[in-house]
């Protein structure tokens, strides 16, 4: 009996710590424009994009990378068929979107980061500590709703402030898909509450 109580206490403590870590992190998981761009030695002369467009493209790449990582984690950890279906769609569609971002980066001679930003990695670590319904709820809330809200804002910023026509065209192409992901996530999130 005492062993069961100790195990329960440890599990409750771990779940509380993970929930606190998620609550302490800002709402925008990966697509936040506050996510720092990777440190590169690329000069303005090397790239066909100005500094602000280059940063927007790098942020877009990191957002897609974070969605792919979060989706793969949900495929491994979730036992819920709806969550797994959503996660698989996110992996598939964000992998395709990342390919388009990479193609534009190559054409514009822009160096992209190797992975998701530090905030996304911190949040992924906290999410990884969760399991069961709590994992599903936080995945739907953070990677589903929160990240896609941030990505919609990023794409709208690119449409408004971007200078490069190819970058703006990519944002125009991606925005309806990301808005659809957000709608799907909003439907998924209440079911997990």
Explain this structure.
This protein has one domain (2-192): Ferritin (Up-down Bundle), CATH 1.20.1260.10. It is 76% helix and 0% strand. The chain is built from six helices and no strands. It has helices spanning 2-24, 51-77, 81-107, 118-128, 132-161, 165-192. The two termini are 31 Å apart.
Mean pLDDT reading: 83
In CATH, what is the homologous superfamily? Ferritin, core subunit, four-helix bundle
Number of spatially distinct domains: 1
CATH T-level topology:
Ferritin
Order of helices and strands: HHHHHH
**Computed Rg:** 18 Å
Query: Which spans have pLDDT < 50 for at least 5 consecutive residues?
Result: 2-42
Helix content: over 70%
Strands, total number? 0
Task: Provide a brief overview of the structure.
The chain is an all-alpha fold and 193 residues long. Helix content is 76%, strand content 0%. It starts with a helix and ends with a helix.
Keywords for this entry:
193 residues; mainly alpha; Ferritin; 6 helices; 0% strand; elongated
């Amino acid at each position: 009996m005492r062993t069961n109580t100790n195990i329960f206490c440890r599990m409750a403590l771990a779940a509380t710590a993970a929930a606190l870590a998620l609550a302490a992190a800002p709402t925008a998981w990966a697509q936040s424009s506050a996510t720092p761009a990777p440190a590169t030695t690329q000069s303005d002369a090397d790239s066909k994009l100005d500094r602000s467009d280059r940063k927007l493209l790098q942020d877009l790449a990191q957002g897609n990378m974070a969605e792919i990582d979060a989706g793969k984690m949900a495929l491994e950890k979730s036992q819920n068929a709806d969550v797994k279906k959503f996660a698989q769609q996110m992996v598939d569609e964000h992998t395709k979107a990342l390919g388009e971002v990479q193609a534009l980066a190559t054409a514009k001679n822009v160096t992209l980061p190797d992975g998701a930003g530090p905030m996304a990695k911190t949040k992924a670590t906290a999410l990884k500590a969760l399991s069961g319904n709590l994992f599903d709820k936080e995945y739907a809330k953070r990677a589903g709703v929160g990240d896609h809200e941030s990505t919609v804002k990023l794409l709208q910023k690119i449409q408004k402030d971007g200078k490069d026509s190819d970058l703006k065209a990519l944002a125009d192409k991606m925005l309806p898909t990301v808005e659809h992901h957000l709608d799907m996530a909003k439907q998924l999130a209440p079911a997990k509450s």
